Amino acid sequence: MKPDVQYSNKQLDQEWVHLISMAKNKGLSVAEFHSFLRKKKAKGNHKG
């Protein structure tokens, strides 16, 4: 059985490339990038 919702590797890769290029544009270090991702994820999960 395949799951209903599927993300192709291509889509995921494009999203990562976008996020990484954004981080580079902001001049973030790897550690800063990770904390940025955590904040981004937290914002998405907790609205309000």
TrEMBL record:
It comes from Weizmannia acidilactici. GO terms for molecular function: protein dimerization activity. This is Sin domain-containing protein. Pfam families: SinI (PF08671). It comes from the Bacteria. One of its GO terms (biological process) is regulation of DNA-templated transcription. Residues 3-41 form the Sin domain. Coiled coil: none annotated. InterPro entries: SinR/SinI_dimer_dom, SinR/SinI_dimer_dom_sf.
